[in-house]
Amino acid sequence: MPHYRSLRPSKILEVLQNLPDDQSDCEPTEEERHILHLDSESEESDYNITQNSDSSRDDDHTHRDSDDSVPLSTLRSANLRRGRGRGRGRGRGHRGRGSRVQTEIIHHNTIVEVSSSGVSWTPGNLSVLNQPGRRPRQNILTEEAGPTAFAKRCYKGSILSAWKLIIDDSMLRHIQKCTETEARRQLEDNTWTLPLNELDTFIAIIYARGACEAKNIAVNDLWDKNWGIQFCSQNMARNRFKEIMRFLRFDVRTERAERLQTDKFAMISEVWNKFIHNSISCYKPGENLSADEQLFSTKVRCRFLQFMGKKPDKFGIKFWLCVDVDSKYLCNGFPYLGRDESRPQNQSLGEHVVLRLMDPYLNTGRNITTNNFFTSVSLAKKLIEKLTSIVGTVNKTRRDIPATIKNASLSLYETHIYNSETCTLTVYQGKPSKLVMILSSLHSNVFVDPEEAKKKPNTVKFYNATKFGVDVIDQMAKKYSVKAPSRRWPVQVFYNILDLAAINSWILYKKLSEKKISRKKFILDLARELVGQDTSSLMTPSSSQPDNSIAPEPEGERSGKRKRCYVQKCRNKTNKSCISCKKPLCGSCNVNKELKCQKCA
Length: 601
Description:
By secondary structure, this protein is an alpha+beta fold.
């Protein structure tokens, strides 16, 4: 039998690397039997690497170190170091013949970090190239994005028909019924009525006010002959508008007390639920969705009014929204009403919100992007079971993150990867004092571009590209918002419904008609179709009639490059010139209605 006393560690590593991956539990060859001793008592079938001090002598001189046993797949990437008499157990401190070869795991990938919640994290490898492979089942979209068949059937080719897909006649009839009931109760007049066409005109004036960005103008000023919007006075009397606004209701007062016992949002919940139902049934979103909160600014007296110090408006009613990242279409949403009795005790608020928002789109292969308020490993596991993936930032205070990862010290633009059973955790040092953690069940391979300056991993880039859906739709709603001062919170919620409905109907109209139209023009045309007038009437008198008191600008020859005026002691620059001498002349030095200098005049 040959002697292996002078066998080097590189030879041992070469033998181990030549083994196939699926042969970790197979019997060793004759050559490997002198290097590896199979530990039959180990439950993980690991190999113990030892070296005989003298293979021709008695086997009692062979030292077996059971504490140094590691999996074979781990030894293939481990570094080997030669030592003398450093073994544990029987071999501790033994000065035998020759030297022993001992395995020491110094690669960081072999360390397993366990968090306080019991999640195990194993360091992974960061590649520099995108390795193509088969996509997991939860990442395969099984639906086509765009308007549904129901929306295509009901669309009649006009802007009003696209808006009616979101705000249908049943919602308008419900508002009509509740408003008439309240007016008859207060006025004690059963003849008071609100026709549907008059309700459409009322909503058209509200939309026109928002499109003209006149939400902060008082109602009386909107009907002013000099400064008001001519569209308002042409279609409805001011007192009639104020009367409808006074009695505008979204529920029946006699049934309110009973419904408020089970629904805090009962004063407008029927209108809101119908709006969300129509939005879901008319459009199929793409593969990427975004979930976040919207704070609709108001200071009305309300049981669920929220204060958020980091928001610009501070006070308001909070809504949880789910938005399609590609089209910015509102897919789902509901208000935050405080403590929810239907939420399980072992489920956090963030998990409950995401699961409720994604309920219509589960088992379809979509991805949801969230912030650190929602993201957790338990939520990722629940979504994977329903064929849905998640990408989001993770708060350091989460129990899912081990303390060693929280306190990791990384250099600038350095990235560490950790893998769990279902997720991948990316730790990226984006700024000297900012450590970013991205949890993803979508990405199985994390890579960076070595030529990029900041070396951002693909998970960070994906999060940056899909995180802003709710923020964008909130900015769009505020741009042409119909919101106006009101002390009744149901009216404020109705304003928010009209803003979001205008955005959804605008997206549906563009998809169904395949036309490009600005959102402002869409709102103005919608107001026109609601009352049947031309859009040009939406212009204010001051903008439609020129002011003759302003003298017309003198005419003269223009040049592309601005030059200094030739008049002495004048330092102005101009692109005009005298019509006679052709010298540069500014407007201040002009002495005639025509552009002439003093000499030529």
